[in-house]
Amino acid sequence: MSQKTILVGVAGASASGKSLLAETLIKEFASEHVCMISEDSYYKDQTHLTMDERVKTNYDHPESMDHDLLLEHLKMLKNGESIEVPEYDYSDHNRTKNTRHVEPAKVIIFEGILLFVNPAIREAFDLRFYMDTPLDICLTRRLQRDIVSRGRDMDSVISQYMATVRPMFMQFIEPSRQHADLIIPRGGKNQIAIDLIKTKIHSLVN
Ligand SMILES: Nc1ncnc2c1ncn2[C@@H]1O[C@H](COP(=O)(O)OP(=O)(O)O)[C@@H](O)[C@H]1O
Ligand SMILES: Nc1ccn([C@@H]2O[C@H](COP(=O)(O)O)[C@@H](O)[C@H]2O)c(=O)n1
């Protein structure tokens, strides 16, 4: 593909609405080639660990991510090469054996909590957005989502939140907002923000 791929990064707290914003943008660009990749696909392989050990991993610390592979993939997409994105299983706390083949589309939206922490990774994005959603709303949404879709119970969500999710947000994620081009309040249903982002992406694509 000769056309340059625009790489968009959406960061913010867990359950702040990153995926919803990305999915909304994909729908708005209906006829064009836009796709989404989750940073969660780049959690390190944990096949060598037992399930008891995997449960104890701090999934909100940058060390839990294979950011080397993510950076390599960002560079490959920019060079017009396709990538094989690992598939992640939250119930197993591990990558599966499957991958998703992703072609260098016109626009690729990456969403993830730690995307703006590593300088080389954040600089690979043409546009950087940060979801500014109050933490109490994020926790309420995370409780519902993790129990319904990620195989968790209320006690495990709350104890993980207190032990790692909130402290790592304070240490790494919240400070990384300074690297965003645009800070988005009111989550993934903020239609004015969506319209502004669409206009900017259109101007970069054309
Ligand atoms: N503005 C919103 N209003 C209502 N529910 C929302 C809103 N934004 C996100 N959600 C819901 O909250 C949950 C977490 O949102 P999601 O986009 O998956 O967060 P993230 O990708 O940041 O972890 C999902 O179930 C989603 O549908
Ligand atoms: N095995 C795992 C892997 C990740 N998490 C949590 O996911 C959150 C990031 O994903 P979002 O879609 O919420 O942005 C992160 O806060 C991790 O705690 C997990 O619980 N288990």
Automatic annotation (TrEMBL):
First-listed, main subcellular location of the protein, grouped into a coarse class: cytoplasm
InterPro entries the UniProt entry points to: P-loop_NTPase, PRK/URK, Uridine_kinase, Uridine_kinase-like
EC number(s) per entry: 2.7.1.48
Molecular-function GO terms, alphabetical: uridine kinase activity
Subcellular location: Cytoplasm
Top-level taxon in the UniProt lineage: Bacteria
Domain Phosphoribulokinase/uridine kinase: 8-193
A Pfam family of this chain: PRK
UniProt-annotated binding residues for ATP: G12, A13, S14, A15, S16, G17, K18, S19
CDD domains found in the cross-reference section: UMPK
The protein's annotated pathway: Pyrimidine metabolism; UMP biosynthesis via salvage pathway; UMP from uridine: step 1/1; Pyrimidine metabolism; CTP biosynthesis via salvage pathway; CTP from cytidine: step 1/3
Catalysed conversion reaction: cytidine + ATP = CMP + ADP + H(+); uridine + ATP = UMP + ADP + H(+)
Keywords: ATP-binding, Cytoplasm, Kinase, Nucleotide-binding, Transferase
Family: Belongs to the uridine kinase family.
Identification of the protein by name: Uridine kinase
Lineage: Bacteria, Pseudomonadati, Pseudomonadota, Gammaproteobacteria, Oceanospirillales
